[in-house]
Structure formats: structure tokens, C-alpha cells
User: Fold this.
Amino acid sequence: MQHYHSLEEVSLDNSWLTVGVFDGVHRGHQEIIKKLTAGSHANSFRAVVLTFNPHPASVLARAEIGMLTLPDERAELLASMNVDVVITEHFTKELSNVTAFDFMARLKKHLGLNHLLTGYDFALGKGREGNAVRLTEIGRELGYSVEVVSALSDESGVISSTEIRKLVSVGNVTEAAQLMGHLYSLRGQVIRGDGRGKKIGVPTANIDYPHEKVVPAKGIYAGWAYLEGERHIAAISIGVNPTFTPEKQIPSVEAYLLDFDKDIYGKELKIEFVARLRDELKFDSVDALVEQIWKDVEETRKLLKS
Assistant:
């Protein structure tokens, strides 16, 4: 899979394409991607996904949108679904003012666009004029066809990135994973914290996570940690550690890797959230804190072993 960071870098002869933010690459997105890869490869064309960064709503509404996936994470997920080319286009106000026709003409020129798949509510171009009807009209002129993929719903309604962000932000990582079709994750370099975990016999890896992403609500979670290609059971803490540092504002993300004892400072660690165990609590003593931590560790072990 090739990942480009500008449409100008790409020159293809024939492709099937889908366009969207695809944040989280959730189950609804996956329905579009499956149709894209199956159809394009059956016709010996490239399967191409054009996505945007930052989120268009962050640019147009001037309100920061916490992301479920950053560009490289999105590209990895799309590559796992047999997409051939991912293009992460930088979204700007200038781009938002390009007409649907002019934007599609660029796609035709750079991608040799043959077939376009869109979501049921997709629109692009200035004033969102490029809905399915308009894109089909443009396609007749430029020489590509359009296919609209219906929304995927479950018992809670249409699956959307917005709903998943809400679930993650309140700590409901289990339901979020059901809608995404994969576990929610954070990754970053392991950095030095205050060393308090080591002093109380529970050394944790403090992760320098990207603050553009949605961080699950403060609390204790059971999950997986990936380090240098190996997977470990992990008890994960998100919070400000109110027992010791109640004045702290920005939550830390720390993972205790079970049955693991190595120096991993400076290495990249990816953590996946399986389930939320409890709220973050303030304890009256260090002994009470340590006792609860070991309960959390054992609950994590039982949950992940099952």
C-alpha cells in the first residue's frame, strides 16, 4: 500500500475511488471499502481512498475535533483491508471553496478515475454542492460512474464517527469497539514520569500520546499493549492521580504490562482498550492504593485471559 500526503504526488491510469474523512474506519466505512476493493480488483484497477487532515469541521467551524485515528493509523487500517493507495489531502479553507466540478476534474487527472463510491450522505465541493446527483452529472461529462453505498445501522441507529467519539470520551470503549469493528487505541513514545509506580512496586509505562486524539474518560481499563511486535496484557490508567497530584490538569496515560520487566523508555508503545474497570479514585493511603491496583491487575488478567 502507498500512502501519499497530497493529490499532486499521485499519477494513476485507472482507479476506483472513495472520498471522505473515514475517521476511525468504522464498520460503516468498512462496507464502502469492501465494495471498493472487491470491485476495483475484479476489474484490475487500483483501489484508492482519499481522506483529509485536519478534520474539515475543525477548519470550517474553528472547533477542534478530537480524532479517533490520525493519518498514519487510518492508512494502516485501510491497508489491512487491501486498499492500494491512500491519499491524505491537507484540508484548508481554500480547498473548501473549490467547486465540485473542479475537484472531480483534479481527481480524474491524477487518478484516472473510473468509478466513484460514496456514502449515503456524502457531499463535496463549495457549499457541499457535490452530492450524489451532482457527482453523477459531473461523471457523465468527465467519464466516471457513481455508486452510492447505504448507511450501516445497528440497534442504536446509524453508525457514525461522531457517536463513537462520544462513547470513547465517556469511557465506553467496549461499545465503541463494537461500532468500529476493532479496538480503540492510543500510541506514543514511552517517557519518564515521576517514577512513583516503580517505588510502590507497580512500574508503569507513561505514554506521550498525541493530544489531537480522543482520550477515554479518566479511569482504569483492561487492554493490550504492543511493543516491538509483541502483545502483552496491560492494566491501563488514565487520569491525574488524585491520591498524589490532585492539582494536575492534563491526564496521563500509563500502562502496566503484566509479567513484564524491561526498560522501554524511548520505545513506541501502542495500547488497545478492551474494557473499563472503574473510575479513577482518590485513596486515603498508599497501602489502600496499592491494594486496589493489584485487584485491578488481577481483574485485567482474568478478563483478557477469557
Notes: The chain is about 30% helix and 30% strand. The two ends are 35 Å apart (CA to CA). The first strand starts at residue 2 and ends at 4. The mean pLDDT is 92.
